[in-house]
Amino acid sequence: MNQLVDSLTTLGWAAGAPLFVSGDERPGRVSVVHGPSIEVIWFPSDAAAETTLFELRRDLNLRPVAGDWIVIDGGEPVRVVPRRTSLSRPDPNERDIQVLAANIDTVMIVLPIDRGLNLKNLERLSVMVWDSGADPLVVLTKADATDDPEPVVEEAQAAAPGVPVVLTSAVDGRGLDELRSRMAAGTTTTMLGASGVGKTSLLNALEGHAEAVREVRRDGQGRHTTTTRKLYRLGSGGVLLDLPGIRSLDLYASDAAVEETFADVAALAEYCQFRDCAHDGDKGCAVEAAVAAGELPERRLQSWHAIRREMAYQSRRSDPAAMAAQRQEWKRVTKASKKDSR
Questions:
Q1: Are strands 165-167 and 135-141 parallel, antiparallel or unpaired?
Q2: What pTM did the predictor assign?
């Protein structure tokens, strides 16, 4: 059994964590999902791993995603292990939540610096990561494309308070050893970012892979080199789950995730006169006072408002009654506005 535990750590299972199988059950991890089937790396015996394509059973307790731990019995998947962490976003169908990956320890928020840092994306991705339960890590790529990257690093640190920032280059190898040290056996990492930010190049540099890298357009966006979610076993001992680039950054997250991302705003809010202060013209608002005094960038407060508005919208979107009430209110306000303008 100890040998099986040691083998599972090569798939990202934490050393010392109790096993999730008993009797004749065998453990495995979902590597890729192909529609109605899943590719699983599993252990028919305690030591030797195999990769098998299984058809999905309709009676599974959860629909598996890449990164899920799964129990195999009688030659087929019978149970998905409860997820420790879950990286998700609103489903494009506007009703459900789409789980992108499961059981991630660290999410690398990958952003290029050759065209200026996209602070809005950094903040929104940070909310996603904090909400997942994983630890965020900001990874700035293409450091070789600028002579003075330090101001960009400082920008990233200000936009993601308390989150480590690693400056990297797939060309000169900068920062790669630090990333490898964070991807030890028993850990799972994933990279989150838009297409063209350098995720595939970063993976190639870390592992010596030859994954296709496609040209980035003049606007800085790239085509999706990665089209499926795939689990890689790394030379550093851990595993990396490669995700396609994120086209849409819709958010459906907890208040706690927003507080973590905007820790500077949350700290100032403790001094507001009212506990339910909306930081929008409220009497005794310490956050707006800090903006006026130059102690908090106005952009940070604007971003906080934008994300809170989107979260409220996503919450209403999943509630038909709330959406209907909002439409009625919009019609009422529009009608009154037209009447006043006559």
A1: parallel
A2: 0.79
